[in-house]
Amino acid sequence: MFTSLSDRLTATFRNLRTKGRLSESDVNKTVRDIRLALLEADVALPVVKDFTHRVRERALGAEVSGALNPAQQIVKIVNEELTQILGGQTRGIRFAKQPPTVIMLAGLQGSGKTTLAGKLAYLLKADGHTPLLVAADLQRPNAVTQLEVVGERAGVPVFAPERGNIAGHDAVLGSGEGTRSYGDPVSVSRAGIEFATSKQYDVVIVDTAGRLAIDTDLMAQAADIRAAINPDEVLFVIDAMIGQAAVETAQAFLEGVDFTGVVLGKLDGDARGGAALSVASVTGRPIMFASVGEGVKDLEVFHPDRMASRILDMGDVLTLIEQAERAFDRSQAAEMERKFLAAEDFTFDDFLQQMSAIKKMGNFKQILGMMPGMGQMRQQLESFDEREFDRVEAMVRSMTPFERTHPKQINGSRRARIAKGSGVSTSEVNQLLERFGEAQKMMKQLARGGVPGMPGIPGMGKRGRQPAPQRTKSKSGNPAKRAADAREAAQRAASKPAGGAGGAFGAGAGGGIPTDLDPSALPKGFEKFLGKS
Amino acid sequence: MSWIDTAWEWAAVIIGILVVAGGIIAGLFRGRGGATKDLPAPPPTVPAEVEEELPPLQPTPTIERPEAPEGRLARLRARLARSNTAMGKGLLALLAGGRLDEETWEAVEDTLITADLGVDASTQVVERLRQRVAAAGKTDEATMRAWLREELVALVDPSLDRDLASSRIEDRPACILVVGVNGAGKTTTAGKLARVLVAEDKDVVLGAADTFRAAAADQLQTWGERVGVPTVRSDRDGADPAAVAFDAVKAARDLEADVVVIDTAGRLHTKVGLMDELGKVKRVVEKQQPIDEVLLVLDATTGQNGLRQAQVFTEVVGVTGIVLTKLDGTAKGGIVVAVQRDLGVPVKLVGLGEGPDDLAPFDAETFVDAILD
What we know:
The complex is a heterodimer.
Chain A: H1 3-17, H2 24-40, H3 45-60, H4 70-85, E1 101-107, H5 113-126, E2 131-136, H6 143-154, E3 158-159, H7 185-199, E4 203-208, H8 216-229, E5 233-239, H9 245-257, E6 261-265, H10 274-283, E7 287-291, E8 299-301, H11 304-311, H12 317-327, H13 330-341, H14 348-361, H15 364-369, H16 378-382, H17 387-397, H18 401-405, H19 412-422, H20 426-447, H21 469-472, H22 479-501
Parallel strand pairs in A: 1-4, 1-5, 2-3, 2-4, 5-6, 6-7
Antiparallel strand pairs in A: 7-8
Helix pairs in contact in A: 1-2, 1-4, 2-3, 3-4, 4-11, 5-6, 7-8, 9-10, 12-14, 14-17, 17-19, 19-20
Chain B: H1 2-32, E1 50-51, H2 72-95, H3 102-114, H4 119-136, H5 141-156, E2 174-180, H6 186-199, E3 204-209, H7 216-226, E4 231-234, H8 241-254, E5 259-264, H9 272-285, E6 293-299, H10 305-317, E7 321-325, H11 335-343, E8 347-351, E9 359-361, H12 364-372
Parallel strand pairs in B: 2-5, 2-6, 3-4, 3-5, 6-7, 7-8
Antiparallel strand pairs in B: 1-4, 8-9
């Protein structure tokens, strides 16, 4: 997601990095590059113009005389502007003082409203609410059935008094112009609210039919539904792959139903997601959620500041931590911390525990994608097979408790048994053990104050093998000298991955940060670009 | 201090994840390289649960007679024009304004970009118009209109072969596979396509290989029933789509049909596993006979990502034609120009509305005229 946009901006800035000072022509060239990058990322033209205009003004303005080197200046400006366009602050759902809170979904056909209804219900349920889904899409063939399936997957009841269009016909009026509903969505919505009130559901999610911006009848119907149920939130669902039509569509829906928030659909594709910028900028409504997969769990709260970081490939550690918080319980985390600080050996039991927690966090690829600097490895990540998890788990579960805590004791015959027990080849078990040994070493090294860097991953970009310095260097016989060596090695280890993590802009960008610059004034995660960790 | 503790805890957790990630992924990349196994080819036999629905012996009396495809585009032209007027008018107003300075050209380019034509194509059109203006020195409205039309037609390239493979080839039915991302309108397109073919007096069989989305097969079957076309489907959700497709083709061969249209589930082109599944559908069907036509359904609102979709789908199943759907909105569908330019895959059909007969064969000149009128 947003990959290509960040790639492009990164390439643009790489050219700038070599310059010591920004001339007007530099700025113009960069701005042109940004314009092209944004246009190809499907950001709507008016938004691009506005954006580049502001970036240019600022890049040429007083700020330039300041401290950062040119690339850093532009990155900072672009980052801030992006954050601002994307809506600044994160906004959650506004709940009604008097339940039920009513949420209405609207959007084009095929943007993912029905699927979103399920995801949103799942998310709210996980937060301790009791949501109810109302099937007011009586027009698309079998939409009601689909909502019921989705509701079942999310474990949320569905209110569907009308079956809607079960015949599978496309619901076209006799004239061939416009569409009609099989039943009255307005009364269904109203009845849904009453039902929720009487049964004490505290959130009602009304799924409406997809409609085109130019279909005035359907737009009027949507407005009628809105008027009838007086929703607390009207969410506009828009496909992240949409092109320049985003602006007109968003404006039409803003006029038609006056939505209060936006949900980006299908952000798990490789669309550059310019629509996010366009819609937020044109309508001034915040983007509240991003839908990132087909399962009911694949919905993320949209954080504009983090998304801006993501565009610039600065990683999204905050979201990661939040997801981790949900998946790991406190005692587990505390235990991890204790082991970690005590530099105790990491065992297969811990490994298993973490694997199950990661599974709970959802899609593994997504999790890794949030780590800083992972943008470059996306290709490899995509080809990663989630079932590899199951294979590894099978191997670990085929070990005896003794073997799990003493991996070094696993000899040839034990390996053969484990391979047999888990249905893999012995060489796969060997690989697992080898990797595990390295992971253990890494944990220890980290406990001594290193910075997290992935262990050697062949062919996976810049964050490749960083051998533990302790291993390569012969140890001194003198204890004092050995301690000094270790400290030095730890320092090296600390500085090295930091450069790698900022690799998008290179560690070389770090030179000459003047003292009058207050790092805390920069956006989160920005320190990395200063080459300091 | 408590926040430091918490921070440490989560840092530990994150590191743990990295460790696990390293452990699993790295092993994967190290070990998998040479270990490709030769899997036995999937047996071409068909699972028993796939049930065939042979055509009703006595077709229901309510079978509709769809409109002939010729002239559909002309009828739909009004609607197309409505969605595009702003663009055509805007362009002409700019060009015929008399003063053709830098700003005007930029505005023209912008208008084209707004139609999702992409930066390259837009720049190209503007460049060539400028050259013509410079050479001829004329800027009256009629000339400008003619030039603009020529350039746009050249862009859409009328010389491409836009015929559908829809008649029996030797002694087997033609096979059409419909693919695309989620929500593009594949099932609807398959259904409307069946109507187009029936209107051309073809014997059609539909294959509901979308076994994933709830009730997709029902939707397709209803489309079929309306025009008396049999639908081959699985009786449960989640069946193997390749098996259903295989069955559909087999049924079409047995029935000596002219053409079989297979609808597949929507899949994002970035999902490797799902794309593999699609590749399997193709391979399995080709055990019986080649697939003659692979239609990629593209939503007209799609932006530059449409090109990427076309690329990936072409790699996996070899797309031979594009169906541009939902062109009746505010969308201009300019992305197809980029797809044609880059991949040489022509637009074969356009969906212009929600009516059952609103799928029309694409015609470059009518299309451009509708934009400019």
